[in-house]
Amino acid sequence: MSDKKAMTGGCQCGAVRYTAQVDVTQAYLCHCRMCQRATGGVPIAFIGLPKSDMSWESGPDWYESSPIARRPFCSKCGTPLGFVFNQGENMDITVGSLDEPYGIEPHWHFASEKIHEAWIDTSGLKRMPLSEHAALSQRWIDATGAVPE
């Protein structure tokens, strides 16, 4: 059994905040069409955890995504924050909503029959840091004073 560690997270605008006791070995990629549509991602990165290991400090709002499940999200900025069945002890949080998601690796694929293979191994694609796109970087600086994280 892996050790759990407290991790914080929330939405893009900061209206929703949480603390979760996370076991990073429970990270996985979901490829189901519901998750693809709900997040706009191909795939979505989740970490599964017991509901009792999740503490919402503010928010979230909830979307009844099916007759058997719902999804926490921020109604101000639209950030998807997770998935939970109506029945059961566990839930999932989105890896991207963690404050420090770096270094977390997926341990399995779920709904693998819906994998978009071209999006799995992208290691051969050209990489372009935001800092190398001068016009876009300057647009951010002019609007907000800084380039976003």
TrEMBL record:
Keyword Cell inner membrane attached: no
Residue ranges constituting the CENP-V/GFA domain according to the UniProt record: 7-108
InterPro entries assigned: CENP-V/GFA, Mss4-like_sf
Source taxon at top rank: Bacteria
Pfam annotation, one family: GFA
UniProt keywords, alphabetically: Lyase, Metal-binding, Zinc
Family from the record: Belongs to the Gfa family.
Protein name listed in UniProt: GFA family protein
Organism annotation: Qipengyuania citrea
